[in-house]
Specification:
single chain, 151 residues, mainly alpha, 61% helix
Length: 151
């Protein structure tokens, strides 16, 4: 049996006139099961952000205006730098999988880092930067919704 979380309504010890026990909606609330849907939704969202970053990287290379962290095709950046935006997104995903009190701060840090990545492209590839800013905005919305949905 799951430990009490404080949300359950105590049943009245008074006998019921009809012989039936009324069950309210608060009897069914359990924080352990309420925690799972927000985590699944946030995880799917972070994976979606990751896939969108892959699309931005491929698209920027195809149009000839590579993101700063990729560099031009003739002179690419250091390979570890290629993974920077992806590592940021994976950090947000891992923080979602292991929720703690400070998870929102990790998410907001990931959003700030994604904004920093986008700022690097503003002068060289403004279209790519716009897409990266949109992804950072989506990550911010996912973080705020996750904060609101957590018990």
């Amino acid at each position: 049996m799951a430990p009490k979380s404080g949300y359950e309504r105590r049943k009245s010890d008074a006998p019921q006139a009809t012989g039936f026990t009324l069950v309210g909606t608060l009897d069914l609330v359990n924080t352990q099961t309420a925690e799972r849907p927000w985590r699944v939704l946030a995880s799917v969202s972070w994976v979606g952000i990751f896939l969108c970053q892959v699309a931005v990287a491929v698209s920027s290379r195809n149009i000839g205006k590579s993101a700063w962290w990729l560099g031009p095709e003739s002179n690419p950046q250091f390979p570890l730098l290629w993974g920077l935006p992806f590592a940021i997104t994976i950090a947000g995903l891992v923080a979602t999988q292991r929720p703690r009190r400070y998870t929102i701060f990790i998410h907001l840090g990931c959003v700030a880092a994604l904004v920093g990545v986008a700022l690097g492209d503003v002068s060289n590839a403004p279209g790519v930067a716009l897409l990266e800013f949109v992804l950072a905005g989506i990550a911010l919305l996912v973080s705020l919704v996750s904060l609101a949905a957590r018990p």
